[in-house]
């Protein structure tokens, strides 16, 4: 009977800590931002705003990725070696800001397309580069997962 209580308590604690983990940036979807916000902007203004949002997006994505990695390490250590490490999972989660920035970027991109701005080609190249990096990251993740499975 005592074992059953320990298992139930452990499961509840694990569930609570898992809910506190930071999400990977690629798993955070864009919030809706209306492109009408940028309707009065000319192409130069849209380009400047896109660059500003993109710089902040890169910063926040890096911070979110760092938090997600720290949480994953703390979870692994906590589950295998030292359960108090699970208390370190409550880090800075930038999911809300990252979702908003992704939405702003999409709205600006749509505004640039609607106004037929010259920056459209630059955006297309950046999107292709992002997709290439995402594919590389997915391949790396699968390789790491496979190596973990092989070790077990």
Structure commentary:
This protein is an all-alpha fold and 152 residues long. The chain has four helices and no strands. It has helices spanning 2-18, 43-80, 95-114, 119-151. Helix 2 runs antiparallel to helix 3. Mean pLDDT is 75; it is low at 5-20.
Give a short summary of the structure:
The chain has helices spanning 2-18, 43-80, 95-114, 119-151. By secondary structure, it is mainly α.
Quick one: overall form?
elongated
Class based on secondary structure composition and strand pairing: mainly alpha
What integer is the average pLDDT? Answer: 75
| Helix proportion | over 70%
Q: Please mark out the parts with pLDDT under 50 across 5 or more consecutive residues, or reply none.
A: 5-20
Strand content: under 5%
Terminal Cα separation, in Å?
A: 31 Å
Q: How would you sum up the major sheet? A: none
Tally the beta strands. 0
Distinct helical segment count: 4
The H-and-E topology, N to C, reads as HHHH
Please give the radius of gyration in angstroms. 21 Å
Spell out the blueprint of helices and strands:
Elements: H1 2-18, H2 43-80, H3 95-114, H4 119-151
Task: Please describe the structure with a list of short key phrases separated by commas or semicolons.
152 residues; mainly alpha; 4 helices; 71% helix; 0% strand
């Amino acid at each position: 009977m005592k074992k059953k209580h320990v298992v139930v308590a452990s499961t509840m604690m694990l569930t609570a800590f898992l809910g506190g983990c930071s999400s990977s940036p690629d798993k955070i979807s864009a919030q809706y931002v209306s492109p009408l916000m940028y309707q009065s902007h000319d192409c130069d203004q849209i380009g400047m705003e896109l660059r500003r949002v993109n710089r902040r997006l890169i910063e926040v994505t890096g911070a979110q990725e760092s938090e997600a990695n720290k949480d994953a390490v703390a979870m692994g250590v906590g589950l295998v070696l030292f359960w108090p490490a699970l208390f370190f999972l409550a880090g800075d989660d930038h999911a809300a800001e990252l979702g908003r920035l992704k939405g702003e970027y999409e709205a600006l991109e749509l505004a640039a397309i609607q106004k037929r701005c010259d920056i459209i080609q630059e955006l297309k190249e950046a999107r292709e580069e992002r997709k290439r990096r995402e594919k590389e990251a997915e391949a790396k993740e699968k390789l790491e997962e496979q190596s973990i499975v092989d070790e077990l």
